[in-house]
Amino acid sequence: MPNGPGAVMSKIVATRETQPNRHADINRLLHKAWKKLLADGPVSFLRAGREYVEGRHRSWNDARLDRRWGIDTCGIDLNLAELGAAGEQLAHGTYYEPIQIDVFAEIVRALPIAPRDYCFIDIGSGKGRALILAAEAGFRHAIGVEFAPRLHAIAQRNLAIYRGVRPHACSIENYCQDATSYDLPRRNAVLFFYNPFDDVVMRAMLERIERSWREHPRDLILVYRNPVYSMVFDSAPFLQSLVAHRAYRVYRASAVA
Ligand SMILES: C[S@@+](CC[C@H](N)C(=O)[O-])C[C@H]1O[C@@H](n2cnc3c(N)ncnc32)[C@H](O)[C@@H]1O
Prior knowledge:
By secondary structure, the chain is an alpha/beta fold. It has 2 domains: 5-69; 90-253, Rossmann fold (3-Layer(aba) Sandwich), CATH 3.40.50.150. It is 47% helix and 16% strand. It has helices at residues 5-18, 20-40, 42-69, 101-110, 129-137, 149-165, 199-215, 230-234, and strands at residues 119-123, 141-146, 171-176, 189-194, 220-225, 240-244, 248-253. Strands 3-2-1-4-5-7-6 form a 7-stranded mixed beta sheet. Helix 2 (20-40) packs antiparallel against helix 3. The chain binds S-adenosylmethionine. The site of S-adenosylmethionine has 28 residues, from helix 5 and strand 2.
């Protein structure tokens, strides 16, 4: 096998010929980066570069979970109607995007509770990634509620595979229904919202949670990831704000009112 600069050059030429799309992508990226540097200046350019690299690393890490267990939780699905969701809440629902593994871990660390004493409830549970992460984090029990049947079916498959890998993980229930018709269990729970719907449905959901909590006082921790409608939570008198992070909020309705 020949070595030296000549061999390296022929390798580059061969790669250019066999992977033309990859080179076009790199050229486009470099061109975009150069334009951004000229337009925004070096500080903003470096910040954007760091965010880009972090994002790529996060996607790689998230995909690794799927590869490791042979599950399917990645991807963004924009069209909920095509996924079988229907009814009056459809227009208020947010598209599917799975929770980022590192963000989930950070949120769990920020909670003022021991997961083993709480049930984890994912409102808008999609393909079930948060349920699996909750089981891995040591919650006592996990429940998912998702209104898009196709996402629910994928979650069921994922959960069956997960159960095969971790037969002793906590019990996991997964329901295909509109979250505003779901009756909360009467136990201490962490309610997880990864921006599932708009403020209209969020208000209806919070009224339901407040009613259930007043009838059966217990400790409820509400986590709101990507808190675009946090004002709905902030203005709910039964909730106390615990964490106000840029990327997520944590609220509490205590067992002692
Ligand atoms: C951003 S995704 C979050 C998925 C999942 N919680 C996770 O963290 O991996 C929001 C999910 O909420 C679901 N959703 C939206 N409106 C809903 C409703 N009214 N009832 C139940 N699920 C809903 C969507 O179908 C979507 O799967």
